[in-house]
């Protein structure tokens, strides 16, 4: 059999790696999420309000695109799809509410490291619920990345400046990880039958509704905010949410939820470096070991991903 021409082989290689390139761009954008949340909190914005406006602005910005490109999909939604969208939005709302709140009590490094333990929970759920067996290289990537996250958390917890409320913050970050894992697993099933604009509009919109309802019920201030706070909230919607999380949602059609969860493990690297530059949150040599393991784990998971 004649071999494929070089141009065809190049196109296949590019197509195979294109989702990984897009995920890299999304990871860079999403690494700013914790930094912007901290700035908003410093401006006096409550964590629940930060989560509400992040999802609210994102849903509002994507609305024209969803209505123009996905109007027919949205009008033909089945009851099952609508229930799945609401459920995904509910878990996404819980994810942001718990994770952003965790930043009030623990460091950026610990919060993001614990929040990105998704591969453990998704890998277990995918095996027991969907009977999906990951490749050996994928398992190795998960193990390395998870070990890196634990090293970052351990190093941070041993620092002299650890807060007395760090345990609460770490627990909230862990709950946020469980909720994000559920969101990815549900989203993978829903995304298979919906275009990206329709899916993210439904998921972000549902999450925003849940968060605004919770904020109103809890008497959270949503409107009397500073000009800087409004700019930061819009930036969170445009960068970490629309550019960051939306690339994860786009990639659900091409790669597994397990691999996407592994990619999110790179967030502590970017977030911790940004926290060091902006907030002077130092990190110990052990954290560098953890960062290295995270990146190596992501590489092996990419090599082991079945496309």
From TrEMBL:
Keywords: Membrane, Transmembrane, Transmembrane helix. The keyword Transmembrane helix applies. The chain crosses the membrane at residues 20-39, 51-70, 82-102, 108-130, 137-155, 167-186, 198-217, 223-243, 255-278, 284-302. One of its GO terms (cellular component) is membrane. The keyword ATP-binding does not apply. It comes from the Bacteria. Pfam families: EamA. Gene3D superfamilies: 1.10.3730.20. Residues 27-153, 168-300 form the EamA domain. This is EamA domain-containing protein. The lineage of its organism: Bacteria, Pseudomonadati, Pseudomonadota, Betaproteobacteria, Rhodocyclales.
């Amino acid at each position: 059999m004649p071999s494929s021409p070089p141009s065809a082989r190049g196109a296949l290689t590019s197509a195979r790696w294109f989702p990984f390139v897009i995920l890299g761009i999304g990871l860079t954008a999403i690494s700013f999420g914790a930094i912007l949340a901290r700035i908003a909190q410093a401006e006096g914005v409550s964590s629940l309000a930060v989560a509400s406006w992040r999802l609210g602005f994102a849903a509002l910005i994507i609305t024209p695109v969803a209505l123009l490109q996905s109007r027919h999909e949205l009008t033909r939604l089945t009851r099952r799809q609508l229930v799945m969208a609401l459920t995904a939005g509910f878990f996404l709302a819980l994810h942001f509410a718990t994770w952003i709140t965790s930043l009030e009590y623990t460091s950026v490094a610990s919060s993001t490291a614990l929040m990105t333990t998704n591969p453990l929970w998704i890998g277990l759920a995918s095996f027991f619920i969907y009977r999906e067996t990951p490749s050996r290289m994928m398992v190795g990537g998960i193990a390395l990345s998870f070990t890196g996250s634990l090293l970052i958390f351990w190093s941070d917890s041993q620092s002299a400046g650890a807060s007395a409320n760090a345990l609460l913050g770490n627990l909230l970050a862990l709950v946020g990880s469980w909720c994000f894992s559920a969101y990815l697993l549900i989203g993978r099933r829903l995304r298979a039958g919906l275009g990206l604009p329709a899916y993210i509009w439904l998921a972000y919109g549902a999450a925003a509704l849940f968060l605004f309802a919770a904020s109103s019920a809890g008497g959270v201030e949503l409107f009397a905010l500073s000009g800087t706070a409004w700019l930061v909230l819009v930036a969170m919607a445009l960068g970490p949410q629309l550019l960051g999380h939306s690339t994860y949602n786009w990639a659900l059609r091409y790669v597994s939820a397990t691999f996407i969860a592994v990619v999110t493990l790179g967030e502590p690297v970017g977030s911790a470096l940004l926290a060091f530059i902006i907030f002077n949150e130092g990190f110990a040599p052990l954290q560098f070991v953890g960062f290295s393991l995270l990146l190596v784990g992501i590489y092996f998971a990419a090599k082991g991903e079945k496309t």
